[in-house]
Amino acid sequence: xxxxxxxxxxxxxxxxxxxxxxxxxxxxxxxxxxxxxxxxxxxxxxxxxxxxxxxxxxxxxxxxxxxxxxxxxxxxxxxxxxxxxxxxxxxxxxxxxxxxxxxxxxxxxxxxxxxxxxxxxxxxxxxxxxxxxxxxxxxxxxxxxxxxxxxxxxxxxxxxxxxxxxxxxxxxxxxxxxxxxxxxxxxxxxxx
Length: 192
Prior knowledge:
Elements: H1 2-9, H2 27-33, H3 37-49, E1 58-60, E2 66-68, H4 70-84, E3 87-90, E4 93-96, H5 97-112, H6 134-142, H7 145-150, H8 155-166, H9 175-191
Helix pairs in contact: 1-5, 3-4, 6-8
């Protein structure tokens, strides 16, 4: 993808700054991927946390190294593609990560051609928003079934939420459920 963007913008992908320049390497593309390498890490972490990676997605080599099979590689590529299409706030606007990468490469091109005097090539900030934080887990574990029913939810919903909160695995909550968990906390703290 970054190689394609460098070509679209008109940069020579072989002329890099950090990686060795040889005719067989796209050094600039390798340089430009560095600030965004964390997106691949997030994709892999997401797959592992969701239990999507299986032992059949790997092969053990004769040196006891693990290598991805095509099935595992496809999963990572698909998840990475999802990451590139995720919305992020950048320069006061909602953009996808792929568009942010395009903007940063274009910014470099403008700097190199003196259309821009300053280059701000700091990677954009990215916050991982986890719903299943320790605080949320504790709130769920502290809610009584009576209080939960007063908020309009069934006992079964709270039961499954408590099971998730007790486990080490990540979980998500629907927005309306999270809102009621926080509403419960406000009600309880207002009674004290």
